[in-house]
Design brief:
This is Bifunctional enzyme IspD/IspF. This protein has twelve helices and 19 strands. It is an alpha/beta fold.
C-alpha cells in the first residue's frame, strides 16, 4: 500500500483568537502545526507505515513552512477554500503511484496511532474511512439564547481526521464536486462512495476556540506524566583486522599497526552503540537503515549512523539517559583515548559527556580478540521519554 498523508493548514480562521492563524500559534513552546507534523510522523512510525507527507499552506506561509520543516515535507500552496486546498494536494500526487491518501487537519496536534491504523485498516476493504466519536451529550435547538427544542442523538457522531480514501476515487470526487464542503467525507459521499466510521479518540481534538489551547496543554501534561517510559537497548559488533596504520574507535583515530575491515569505516564501538539505540527504539539495526548492499555507504563515516539513530530517538520522544560502550581488544590501548571518545560520542548524540562511558577490557589472550585478529564491542543505552 503506497500512502500519502496530507496535512491541511492553509486556513485563516479567527475563532481561536490571537494575532495569527491557530496553526501558527504557540503550544508548549512550538507552533501547533509542528505538534501536528510530529504526531503524524510518530503515529506512522509506531504503526510501521511509510507515507509521503504533504503540507498545504497559505501562499503567504510557504517560506515559514520551509523553515519549520527544513525541506523534509512537500509544501503545497492552498486555494481559496479548504476543498480547493485539498484538491491542490491531490492533483500534485497524480502519477506518483499513490494508492491511499489520508487528509488531516493541521489544527489537530495529537494524532493517536490507533486512530491512524483504524482508518488504514478500513481502507483495505472500503474506498473511504474516517474516525469519529459518538455524540454523548443531549442536543438542543437554540433560538436567541433559549432552548427551542431537542434532537435525538442516536446515530450522531463527532467527525475527526485523518479521513482516508482510495486515491483515484477521492481525486475524481474532488474534480467533480461543485461548491465548498466542510470536509472530504461530504465530497466522497456526494460521489457515491461508501465511507466507514472508525473509532476516534478524545485526544484527537481540533483547536478551534481559545479555550482549546488550555485543553491541548492539559493533554500534553497528561501524556508526559503517563509516559514515564525508560527503554533499554544493547548492541554488539565485531570487525576483523586488515592491513593499515590506524583504527577508528568511537570516532577517534588511533595509530595502530593494523586497520579494521568493514563496509564503512569499521568503527566497531560506534556501530555497537548505534545498534543499541535502534534496539531500544525497536527500530531494527544499522543494516535496516543503511543497507551494506547500498554502495553509497561504502567507506561511510560511522557518525552518520549514530547521528541518525540519536535524531530518530528525539523524533520519537526520547533522550539519551546514558550510554556505555566496552571495547574488547588486546591492542591498541584504549585508556588514553577514552576521554576523547566519550566527548565525541556525546557531541554526536547531543547529550552531556557525563552521560557517556567508554571503557575497555581484554579477553585474557583467549579467542579471536585474544589472538589480535579483530576487535569486538558491546554497548548499552537507556532512553528516557522526554
Amino acid at each position: 500500500m503506497s500512502i500519502a498523508l496530507i496535512i491541511v493548514a492553509a486556513g485563516r480562521g479567527t475563532r481561536a483568537g490571537g494575532t495569527q492563524p491557530k496553526q501558527w500559534q504557540m503550544l508548549a513552546g512550538k507552533p501547533v502545526l509542528a505538534h501536528t507534523i510530529d504526531s503524524c510522523q510518530t503515529a506512522l512510525r509506531s504503526a510501521g507505515r511509510d507515507a509521503r507527507l504533504l503540507l498545504v499552506l497559505h501562499p503567504d506561509d510557504m517560506a515559514r513552512g520551509l523553515e519549520l520543516t527544513g525541506g523534509t515535507v512537500t509544501l503545497i500552496a492552498g486555494g481559496e477554500s479548504r476543498d480547493a486546498s485539498v484538491r491542490n494536494a491531490l492533483e500534485a500526487l497524480e502519477h506518483q503511484n499513490i494508492d491511499k491518501v489520508l487528509i488531516h487537519d493541521g489544527a489537530r496536534p495529537f494524532l493517536p496511532e490507533t486512530v491512524l491504523t483504524g482508518v488504514l485498516d478500513a481502507l483495505q476493504t472500503l474506498p473511504a474511512a474516517a474516525p469519529a466519536l459518538p455524540v454523548s451529550d443531549a442536543l438542543w435547538l437554540g433560538d436567541r439564547a433559549r432552548v427551542a427544542g431537542t434532537r435525538d442523538r442516536s446515530g450522531l457522531y463527532r467527525a475527526q481526521t485523518p479521513q482516508g480514501f482510495h486515491y483515484d476515487a477521492i481525486l475524481a470526487a474532488h474534480r467533480c464536486h461543485q461548491g465548498p464542503a466542510p470536509d472530504d467525507v461530504e465530497i466522497a459521499r456526494s460521489a457515491g462512495m461508501d465511507v466507514a466510521i472508525t473509532l476516534g479518540h478524545e485526544d484527537n481534538l481540533k483547536i478551534t476556540y481559545p479555550a482549546d489551547f488550555a485543553r491541548a496543554e492539559a493533554i500534553l501534561r497528561a501524556r508526559k506524566d503517563a509516559r514515564m517510559d525508560v527503554r533499554l537497548g544493547n548492541g554488539y559488533d565485531v570487525h576483523a583486522f586488515t592491513e593499515g596504520d590506524h583504527v577508528i574507535l568511537c570516532g577517534v583515530e588511533i595509530p595502530h599497526s593494523k586497520a579494521l575491515l568493514g563496509h564503512s569505516d569499521a568503527d566497531v564501538g560506534m556501530h555497537a552503540l548505534t545498534d543499541a539505540i535502534y534496539g531500544a527504539l525497536a527500530q531494527g539495526d544499522i543494516g535496516r537503515h543503511f543497507p551494506p548492499s547500498d554502495p553509497q555507504w561504502k567507506g561511510a563515516a560511522s557518525w552518520i549512523f549514530l547521528d541518525h539513530a540519536a535524531k530518530l530517538a528525539g523524533e520519537m520522544g526520547y533522550r539519551i539517559g546514558n550510554a556505555d560502550v566496552t571495547l574488547i581488544c588486546e591492542r591498541p590501548k584504549i585508556g588514553p583515548h577514552a576521554p576523547a571518545m566519550m566527548a565525541e560520542l556525546a557531541r554526536i548524540m547531543g547529550c552531556e559527556a557525563s552521560r557517556v562511558s567508554v571503557k575497555a577490557t581484554t579477553s585474557e589472550k583467549l579467542g579471536f580478540t585474544g589472538r589480535e585478529e579483530g576487535i569486538a564491542a558491546i554497548a548499552t543505552v537507556t532512553l528516557i521519554a522526554d
